[in-house]
Amino acid sequence: MTTDLKRFYTCGVAFLIAVAGVTANAQDKVLNLYSSRHYQTDEALYANFTKLTGIRINRIEAGEDPLIERLRNEGAKSPADVLVTVDAGRLWRAEQLDLFTPVTSKVLAARLPDHMRVPNDRWFGFSARARVIVYNKDAIKPAAVQNYEDLADPRLKGKVCTRSGSHVYNLSLMSALIEHWGEKKAEEWARGVVANFARAPKGGDTDQIRAVAAGECQVAVSNSYYYIRLMKSDKPEDRKVIAKVGLVWPNQKSFGTHMNISGAGVLKHAPHKEAAIKFLEYLASDQAQSYFANGNNEWPVVKSAPLDNPELASLGNFRADNLNVGALGKNQALAQRIFDRVGYK
Ligand SMILES: [Fe+2]
Fold first, then answer.
1. Which is deepest, 171, 186, 277, 323, by most CB within 10 Å?
2. What sign has the CA pseudo-torsion 226, 231, 233, 235?
């Protein structure tokens, strides 16, 4: 956190008014960014923006849910201009709390693929992650786990592990499946997955990959960057995990692999709206795309942006689901109701 913002938050209302006066005079020279990211490449990402625009960035970094809670509590007094966070489900939640303002930008419309922009222009996807199937190479033939449908197949009884059903990554996957299959088939699928569990859901995605490698279960789902992190790790125990497991891009012959995003939106009460829009437009530039995606081993969403990540590139091309990210948000509540009905805790 910068000194400015630390003082901002420790000195209370009097200081808040003083700062409001200062920022009003320098309308475009400062940007207050709330971000759930904390990667090394971000230093270059932000420094480059300041170099190009003269706009200094004050950062508040915190977990995804605490940041949204903080914005909610701050209300109209929030100093935040932009929220950067992960998963369409979370960005949608921020939208439901009326935290964002619509952004009409020719740059964003021209640079970002259609499915990375929600119809009401309140938030945007700037990098992409895939939700993949990971399997134990000694126990499972990859042909048996080519589709999300396979996770619910009785042949995999007692073999599947995942993180909690109430986690946003699984709710977003379920939201996509509802969109493709409709509620009835999606619910049958969820019931089948629960019937196949090797153990009650626990831990994060990396824990599922480790459990697959250890043979506690044989098949799991994980966001792609957790797999890449293990691939890049120098630790011998991580090398062993990666040697044991294989990766499948699910549903290559139907709608493609479920994709999610790291994304951002301009906040409704942003004191520096112009700077905020400039920042989002900057994130869509080739260079920023590369920094932004690489920070978390994700794919840039702008096609002309270079993929400067050999491990990620080594996984090759695949068919990605091009569902609009707005659909992932829209179906969240139904996804949770279905998981509740089938006991996917
Ligand atoms: Fe994650």
1. 171
2. positive
